[in-house]
Records
---
Amino acid sequence: MATEILMPALSPTMEEGTLAKWLVKEGDTVSSGDIMAEIETDKATMEFEAVDEGIVGKILVPEGTEGVKVNTAIAILVEEGEAVPEAGAAPASAAMPADLKSEEGRAPAAESAATAPEAPEVDETPDWPEGTALKQQTVREALRDAMAEEMRREPTVFLMGEEVAEYQGAYKISQGLLDEFGPKRVIDTPITEHGFAGIGVGAAFGGLNPIVEFMTFNFAMQAIDHIINSAAKTLYMSGGQMGAPITFRGPNGAAARVGAQHSQDYAAWYMQIPGLKVVMPYSASDAKGLLKTAIRDPNPVIFLENEILYGRSFDVPDVEDFTVPFGKARIWRQGTDVTIVSFGIGMTYALAAAEKLAEEGIDAEVIDLRTIRPMDTGAIIKSVMKTNRCVTVEEGWPQGSVGNYISSVLMQQAFDYLDAPVINCTGKDVPMPYAANLEKHALVTTDEVIEAVKQVTYR
Amino acid sequence: MPARKTTKQPNVSAEELKTYYRDMLLIRRFEEKAGQLYGMGLIGGFCHLYIGQEAVVVGLEAAAEEGDKRVTSYRDHGHMLACGMDPDGVMAELTGREGGYSKGKGGSMHMFSKEKHFYGGHGIVAAQVPLGAGLAFADKYLENGRVTFTYFGDGAANQGQVYEAFNMAALWKLPCVFVIENNQYAMGTSQQRSTSSPDIYHRGEAFGIPGDMVDGMDVLAVKAAGEKAVAHCRSGKGPYILEIKTYRYRGHSMSDPAKYRTREEVQKMRDERDPIEAVRSLLLTGKHATEDDLKAIDKEIKDVVNKSADFAKESPEPALEELWTDIYADVAPQTA
């Protein structure tokens, strides 16, 4: 049966090309893989091979022809003894794809702008019922307990990272875990972040639930390809067949006097990635409850801790299996004059500022986001509908900050409720300096939060 | 089964040879068809064909057992067909249709099959190497006796993460066969111009990982090397490296004019070293098959490939709702 040979597309963007040279002539026998012609695109001259066997019955487009559109018939291939049909009469060896369907469908993530919203549904149930027994615990102990409990619960959970086993953790978060779970499940890695992050993701594909500790998240920049390309995108790329149930955790943000390369807040970086969940706890109860949730989550979770918070003590419920859900903010302080939104160590500035502001008669509501992605924007909007003013607080850099995103959500979803522009209090737009006085100024300060609240409340 | 040292007098059954012939031919014809569909605008973006390298995956799959895992780069169509994935589903993924393995959301470079233990299809050069070591880590942890084939190219062999993975795989004795498919060109850069020492399989020595160089145009040699490597891994001795010398006949991707090598070089390989012709010749000279038998296989393969192309054309584009699915899982889709 005769087939038409069509002008091929030889690059993702090619629409037409020059048929530079025929390497076969009418009457030649060709088989699969034989080079038939040279075709010039705007980028290169490419050889074009035969796919089917047959005899070149007729060349329809002579060599030297420019501007030959992709999918134009350029030759007719016949079988031995077969007459050459007229151009257009023979079936082409494949059809063109159907036109792309209309672009209707779901709207992009941004909601339609500037309509006064209904009060959003917000889950405000307390993290533990009244009367629950509490104990004082440091964030460090809470994180260790969370890992130990989940490792007892599920044999596929294991911890790997630098110094997590014999050294008992560079920051002593994994203290005692090697003794209880042994070297099979508490694994010291070489200093090789890119490699062990990839091994962790592969192990998650293979059915395990790894906890990968980065000694600090600064070093995870060496591993970020595996976090984003391998862990976050695989569920989507596989059409839901395979995912990465893995927790990446470790201290994030500035510690003290360790300079530019060891002091960076990655909340805004990871917040951008669909497929990742991003958690940044402040208190010990959240550190515990959210880490347990992270380890159980079937998706990759970025769990951002803070070295300065490790030693702080908080109330932690003394119950069997305490978890905190993702996507649920916590209101630390009720107030009516202004909403201060923060997360992680930013909460220390937010709460300190609220105390001082109260002395001056300004009643601030303080919201701890706890998870950055998914983000409980409903809690922020609901609060702003009451206070009409918002200040965000974080240690990260200003351009493309978490606060910037909150500002845009409020503009689009609560514009009519705002009586002042939202102010984002952030770290300064500089690499972290070493000198003690400069470092203090590079971070966000309580005074700056107080000043911002006064601006938005016009005091 | 003892490892075979030579293929000069292959101790191999007619059925086995026919299977290799069929499996390699399927890849070749499938890839030619993919090239054709690309030319017609039915396949978009990047499309990296495996033509010329067929003996590598077919030989190694012959050394694999049920439950063994495999992971590779973006030049992945051959690996998927060789491990038994459905040509219809692979071709429909290439055309970005609902019937594709990833529902059209992955494309040529990103396909997976839980059922066939195929863990991708990865687009970042060498990223699959630590991932493969991680799959082997899981198998060792679970004590299930499985082995992972981690494929990468001579180009990927220059990425740092390969050596990070080698170190940990050796340190923890992970059951992983690192398969370096040396097709001699990292896109347009010949191995000579990119790689300080020609024998990549020696690079495991620094980590105590044994390695062999294998003729990748000889499916029986690849199978024998694979059996040796798999036996090593399965016995708990840790990883093994196979550097398999092969050759890709086509450009790096469909849009590569391949001006970095001569037409004569490619033609010489096709004429003298073609892996499919080699098995064909063994079948005919050994009187294991007649020309007619082989024609029947050719026809059978052609039908399978044509059917996959028809399926890939007829399968509808994914529903627009699919844009928003599979971003987060409610339960982990795979289990230990």
---
Amino acid sequence: MKLGVVGKGGTGKTTLSALLAKSYAERGRRVLAVDTDSNPNLAQNLGLDLGVTDEVPVLPRSLAVGLGDGTVTPASLIAEYGVRTPSEVTILHAMRVSQAGAG
Amino acid sequence: MRSLLGAAIDEEADVTLVDMEAGLEHLSRSGGTLAYADVLLVIMEPSRKSILTGARTIALAEELGIPRTFGVGNKARLPDDAEFFATVAGEYGVPLAGIVPQDPDVIEADRLGTPLAPGKGAAVRAAVAQIVAFVDKELVGAG
């Protein structure tokens, strides 16, 4: 199930996103949280240290919209680009905003 | 064509939550997989402007083919804002998934830049759990 969360800045979107993700994880679901911001802070709301947050690699566009070069599998994509947070939620940083209009 | 991210979402996660900072339009153009949610939640503040923005987002989501979009009334000073959200959302045709109260614990956590500490923000957590239950029910209803 894919749940999108939108809202203008200041509405509390990221805070609620983190709490929603945690709530699903507490119910035993495997939760992947994807932050599409170029200045991501969802990871911090999930309990990741700022230093670690800054090192979360950004998922390349070729994997977000394409199939990559054949060397990456769905499991290895999560292993390579996903970071497990203290909330038991895996965070993925996708798409810088500078890329957003490029399609 | 399914992207590798799409496959990872299907196979490696039960729930994928996408914080759509770039906005629906941007994501639909180039985000592919990330743009097309099963459920979309539009977070709103207790202001007429914010609820109108929610209504516009819902119209856009429908155009994009997102099957279920709901508003969430956040930062509600109870009980007045609960009534305000219900009334104005009704006026603009925004279906509500839930209302989340304003909570000093959340404001404090935001100030500190830390997650909401365990045991803090009980009312907010309860409201979020209700939204999760609401979304689950909507998905079951859809078969």
